[in-house]
Specification:
The chain has 275 residues and is an all-alpha fold. The chain folds into two domains: 195 residues, Helix Hairpins, CATH 1.10.287; 60 residues, no CATH class. It has nine helices and no strands. Helix 1 runs antiparallel to helix 2 and helix 4 packs antiparallel against helix 5. The two termini are 82 Å apart.
Length: 275
């Protein structure tokens, strides 16, 4: 099969079983087909459990991200308040209170941010800041605690996902071995019909391609394309043929134009136009 990912293994195994369900399976092949069906069912169930575990982990991880966004916003607010109160400079509002600037603080790993924030606030409160700065500092400490709580809720889903992935991957060797045995005995059973064997184990998307339908569709599309120019030429040809017919009076004009002083002679020439 070559290198494949988990999704391809699951889809390919299901496709092989579906193809076998549409043919008469020789008796010598049936035990190996049953063995592969069992291996695939176990592998599919384990993969589904891993998918569910990943969904739970991702939900917990999203909560951590949301808590971190709130923490970062609070750090920015405290920086602005500190500058406004004259407790820090715009270049680095946390200078003298933390070894981290606001951008450095919010770029720390999730687990390191809460402690760094509490250390910052403790140093800042020693200056007895105005009430608005104190409130911003308290908000940062509160959001740091919320971030820690979100991180703690991530631990279990992350561990569950790791186990589910390990359980799924542990079944892959048995799945591959069962497939190889099925291929071996199917090749022996269909040794005189290589096409049937290849169809059973063809890669995904390699069979049942509607090539003929596409050709017909192209032919159907080609007919209107050929017809349009023909119609267009005919439509253009008619006015072209008509012009010489209309031009005949133009040849007659020189004969009538001899009495150039007599304009009434033009009047009869204009009469055929309505007719």
């Amino acid at each position: 099969m070559g290198k494949t990912n988990i999704g391809e293994n699951r889809s390919y195994g299901a496709a092989v079983l579906e193809r076998f369900g549409a043919v008469a399976v020789p008796a010598p092949v049936r035990p190996y087909l049953a063995a592969f069906k069992q291996a695939h069912a176990e592998y599919e169930a384990a993969a589904a459990r891993a998918d569910a575990a990943r969904d739970k982990r991702d939900t917990a991880l999203e909560a951590v991200g949301a808590a971190d966004d709130t923490f970062d916003e609070s750090a920015g607010t405290l920086a602005d308040k500190a500058v406004g109160a004259g407790l820090g400079k715009r270049q680095n509002p946390f200078a003298g209170y933390s070894t981290h600037s606001p951008s450095q603080l919010t770029s720390l790993p999730y687990a390191a941010e809460p402690k760094a924030a509490r250390d910052l606030v403790a140093a800042l409160l020693k200056k007895k800041p105005p009430s608005d700065v104190a409130r911003a500092a308290a908000k940062l400490v509160k959001d740091a605690a919320a971030l820690e709580a979100a991180l703690s809720r991530l631990t279990r889903p992350q561990a569950a996902l790791a186990k589910a992935l390990a359980d799924r991957d542990a079944l892959l060797p048995a799945w591959v071995k069962a497939l190889q045995k099925l291929k071996k005995h199917a090749a022996a059973a269909w040794d005189e019909d290589e096409g049937a064997y290849k169809a059973l184990f063809a890669p995904l998307g390699a069979i049942q391609r509607p090539k003929k339908r596409r050709a017909k569709a192209k032919a159907a599309e080609a007919k209107p394309a050929d017809a349009k120019p023909a119609d267009a030429k005919a439509a253009e040809a008619k006015p072209a043929d008509a012009k010489p017919a209309d031009a005949k009076p133009a040849e007659a004009k020189p004969a009538e134009a001899k009495p150039s002083d007599t304009r009434p002679a033009d009047a009869p020439a204009a009469a055929p136009a309505p007719a």
